[in-house]
Specification:
Strand order of the largest sheet: 4-5-6-7
Number of helices: 6
Strand content: 15-25%
Helix content: 25-40%
Number of strands: 7
Largest sheet: 4 strands, antiparallel
Radius of gyration: 24 Å
Distance between the termini: 44 Å
Number of domains: 2
């Protein structure tokens, strides 16, 4: 009986499969290097005007997140502004102006100053610093995002035929390509997640 993934296929086309494997390894290595560089850049604390902290479009541009994530973040910040959520920790910084205090806090967080509370310097995906001129306070929001980039592999069985697949997911979008013999793409799919929990 002939199995769908018989090892003879791999023996006959070993050079092709080796080149696919090497290409994937180079792609993954390049992606990791790029993402680490990008991650370092977006992890730096960002000072956001008080009025922009509840504006999804402005916040999206400043902290470099998609519009859906930005709307979710601004909803949470609005709850904090309304007093529905209390701060985890408070501390005092002396400065001549509220803007100067925000700049000093951003520098201290970036340098992981040990005088700051541990919550202020903990590693998160984004740090938003918002000076509030009405209350004369500086709010620090530590934001953790989901891991939005995924590389996927899988197997598809259709009409008695087996296809190997590889794909990429960014946020809610996912794309997959499938091959039966390893020489050409036989099928593909694009999906969008409409609800997640």
């Amino acid at each position: 009986m002939n199995k769908p993934w018989d090892s003879e296929i791999f023996r006959e086309h070993w050079k092709f499969w080796l080149s696919i494997l090497l290409a994937i390894m180079f792609f993954v290595t390049g992606l990791i290097v790029y993402m680490r560089h990008e991650e370092k850049r977006v992890e730096l604390p960002k000072i956001v005007k008080y009025e922009d902290s509840t504006n999804p479009e402005a916040l999206s541009k400043t902290i470099r997140v998609d519009s859906g994530t930005s709307r979710e973040i601004t909803r949470q910040i609005e709850r904090i502004h309304d007093g529905d959520v209390r701060p985890v920790v408070t501390y005092t910084v002396e400065a001549p102006t509220i803007e100067t205090a925000a700049t000093e806090i951003a520098k201290s967080i970036e340098q992981k100053d040990t005088r700051l509370p541990k919550q202020a310097v903990e590693k998160t995906d984004r740090t938003v610093i918002t000076p509030d001129p009405n209350k004369q306070t500086v709010d620090v929001y530590k934001i953790n995002l989901r891991n939005n980039h995924k590389i996927k592999v899988g197997v598809l069985q259709a009409d008695g035929k087996t296809y190997g697949g590889a794909g990429y997911q960014a946020g809610r979008w996912e794309g997959m390509v499938y091959t039966k013999d390893g020489r050409q793409i036989d099928a593909g799919s694009i999906m969008y997640t409409i609800k997640q929990w």
